[in-house]
Amino acid sequence: MMMRARTSQVADGVHLVHGSNTNWVILTEDDAVTLVDTGCPGDREKVLESLSAVGSAPEAVAAVLITHAHNDHLGSAEYLSRTYDTPVYAHEAEVPHARRDFLHQVTIGEILKNGWRPGVLPWAVQALRSGGTKPVPVTSPQRFPPTAGPLDLPGRPVPVHTPGHTEGHSAFHLPEAGIVISGDALVSGHPTSRVQGRQLLPVMFDHDRRGALATLGTFEALSGDVLLPGHGPVHRGSVREAAQRARELAC
Asked: Which stretches of 25-137 are DSSP H helices?
């Protein structure tokens, strides 16, 4: 039996959803919704279920925003685009990644090399069951508007370029709510990590580890006391301190 998605309200109009391996975020405003990430390919029913749980529906999704184009975050983006004509937005450096002009993602070989580490093989089996290797390119992803500031979408998220995990990885800042949606650039846990709490993902997942470390400085400059990561539970506490702890653990 498929496990249900766990949807929790973090603030007014902000919901964090835990899928099979990955989180996504739903921002609601009146009858419209912004969906930040879409889980694994096998999470489609969970995505639809989570929209229903917040009183919405897929046809009400004004846009899908992608933190980055790894399969476990891109899973249902093309489905929503094709079925409901939902626009899919990403940083300009991530747009070709979403189209699958190239793929910067941990390989099966790299996973096998790290298979001796606690949690890696069970995580890999679960990822495969969730469609982690299924091709999910987005046909027509669009880049964020070139002007800085909040997007004209429900929740008014502000894209923040946070490269390292991928070249075009982006976080989203909700300054009025004091919330940062951090994707995989700053997480609060992962099945392959022996560390609990705020951290970078294990090094095998990052395209550019030095860039991932450098981007923690970007998080340190963001005001906020709630972190919504791509993996792990919601973190309530200073985003700046969360980034500093991740830096200390990575050293």
From this structure: 44-53, 71-74, 77-84, 95-99, 108-113, 120-129
